[in-house]
Amino acid sequence: VRESDIRHALVVALDQWASFTGDTRMVEWMRAVARRADPDADDWRNRVSDPANWKDEAAFARLLETAPAAARAVPIL
């Protein structure tokens, strides 16, 4: 993935796919692949892709308030 010409699109797809699957093992695998493919990802993307934050309404609201919209791909937002 890291060497692909479409790396950014693949990382976005992995992040998006991880948010829709109910399989915990797949979520962790996809998040790990995305992190390795994009090691320079900022902390915000790593936090927003963490399923634990999806279950905590207050944590998710804080993430939304701090979303760097200008630097994010639409699917992540």
Summarize the structure.
Helices cover 62% and strands 0% of the residues. By secondary structure, it is mainly alpha-helical.
Portion in strands: under 5%
Number of strands: 0
Q: What spatial form do the alpha-carbon principal axes imply?
A: globular
The number of helices is 5
Order of helices and strands: HHHHH
The assigned structural class equals mainly alpha
Helix content: 55-70%
Mean pLDDT score = 80
Q: Rg to the nearest angstrom?
A: 12 Å
End-to-end C-alpha gap:
22 Å
Largest sheet: none
Identify low-pLDDT runs.
Answer: none
Molecular structure report:
- The protein has helices at about 5-20, 25-35, 45-50, 50-55, 55-65.
- The chain is mostly helical.
- Helix 1 packs antiparallel against helix 2.
- The model has no long low-confidence stretch (mean pLDDT about 80).
